[in-house]
Amino acid sequence: AQSVTQLDSHVSVSEGTPVLLRCNYSSSYSPSLFWYVQHPNKGLQLLLKYTSAATLVKGINGFEAEFKKSETSFHLTKPSAHMSDAAEYFCVVTSGDSNYQLIWGAGTKLIIKP
Amino acid sequence: SQTIHQWPATLVQPVGSPLSLECTVEGTSNPNLYWYRQAAGRGLQLLFYSVGIGQISSEVPQNLSASRPQDRQFILSSKKLLLSDSGFYLCAWSVVGQRETQYFGPGTRLLVL
Fold this sequence. Notes:
- The complex is a heterodimer.
- Chain A is an all-beta fold.
- In chain A, the strands form 3 sheets. In chain A, strands 2, 5, 6, 10, 11 and 12 form a 6-stranded mixed β-sheet that branches.
- Chain A is globular, with a radius of gyration of 14 Å.
- The termini of chain A are far apart.
- The model of chain A has no long low-confidence stretch (mean pLDDT 90).
- By secondary structure, chain B is an all-beta fold.
- The radius of gyration of chain B is 13 Å and the shape is globular.
- The mean pLDDT of chain B is 91.
- At the A-B interface, β6, β10 and β11 of A face β5 and β10 of B.
């Protein structure tokens, strides 16, 4: 069965410093992986996705993630945090058991300090 | 462009009362439709998905049901709400065959008292 673990429930960084949100997955096949972002009082939005092409994936708002099969990781990074990045971030993996199921991590709340 | 609407935004209901949450999509045809529940501190749990009118699949057993009476309308219902039904409910759609990219509505916050 597939699963996703987001290692930190909260991450706090100062504006202008790098962001690292960690995600590890477990899958018995080659999954697709995604990061979604949920801003306060707004809906969920796809940030980026990995679907077996280049292992370094660039998304919106300067975020990127690297798929590392040997480490079963898909960490999200950004070189310099902005106040507008404050949101909750979800790591997601496709389910091999269902053509429609996505397996969601518990989320990481990113806090940006001025 | 495509838009997805959900209503109501917030709902407070007594235990044992019925529920009807509505979701509509504009600007696309024959979408896949999804209902999720998001609990605080937890990820999204897929409740139902639909690939066409009248076609509903349930991922988990529960007190809720879903219907798709029209191509771009998806309804989440319950005959008798339980306290445990409280949560944040999200509707989403995707292009057929592209489950990876789902577009979410603004959500409905349901509080059952």
